[in-house]
Amino acid sequence: MSAPTELLNFEHKPPPPGTARQADLGAVVYREWALLARNRVYLILGLAPMLIYLLLVNTSLSNLVQTVEYKGLAVGFAVFLLPMTLGMSVVSAAGTSAMAIFQEEMSGVATQLWSYPLRRSRFLMGKMIAGVSLVLGQSLLGLVAAVLIFEFPFDLEGWLALLVTLALASLAINGLYLAAAITVTDYQAFMVGSNLSLPVLVFSAPSMYTYDSMPTVLQWFSHVNPLTYAINGMRDASLFGFAEAGRDMAILAVMAIVGYSIGGRALLNRARNI
């Protein structure tokens, strides 16, 4: 008599709600981080301008100009220049993050990505998380280097407000550069524009000088310069706290929303043309 045959029961259960979305987003973030972190050339180019200005320009000018009158407060010039250095780091790292769009297309990775049912929101969210973390990481590295070189008279609220404003600036500037990279289809045009935008944005904002000392034309341009609100916001936040920087922080938040909204729409159109 043969032994009874055991019955094999197979159960098909759907994954718990949200698991697929989390895995999808995690994979996109990991891929974006690998894409950005493995390109050492772009990382060096992103860090070099900030460190050069921090080590050479800031130290030299701080010896030449001792203090600056800012909103009725005598501020050491090294303290006054800190937001400029951080703003330069934000712009440089945002340009590096946006370059990844063209790397994907030139290597054929974009075609492979959009051959799968990848949600536009996951792709954009992954780029936002990876890009902003890269921008914040480079900026925080510059901040640590600045703290080791200079002395800053900020209290606890000043440091917290500075970090919050820096995070908002990273979101806003990275969103605008990402939207520009998705909208512009010519890699060389974007690369030239990205490289030229760094000095234009930095020196047309009240970075090394107060707003009142700027020429009238630059004063007009500074109102549409997104880096103006990042620099003023970080400067006011570090010196006076959250209340004084509230307006600039709100403008940076609106810029971030606009940038990622434009980027999301342009991304859908670009994916259809691949």
Range of helix content: over 70%
Largest sheet: 2 strands, antiparallel
Ends distance: 65 Å
Low-confidence stretches: none
Description:
The protein is an all-alpha fold and 274 residues long. The chain has 10 helices and 2 strands. It has helices spanning 19-37, 40-64, 77-107, 109-113, 120-149, 156-183, 187-203, 216-222, 226-240, 242-272; strands spanning 67-70, 73-76. It has a two-stranded antiparallel ribbon. It is elongated and about 60 Å long.
Provide tags for this entry:
about 270 residues; mainly alpha; two-stranded antiparallel sheet; elongated
Concise overview:
The chain is mostly helical and 274 residues long. The chain has 10 helices and 2 strands.
Topology:
Blueprint: H1 19-37, H2 40-64, E1 67-70, E2 73-76, H3 77-107, H4 109-113, H5 120-149, H6 156-183, H7 187-203, H8 216-222, H9 226-240, H10 242-272
Antiparallel strand pairs: 1-2
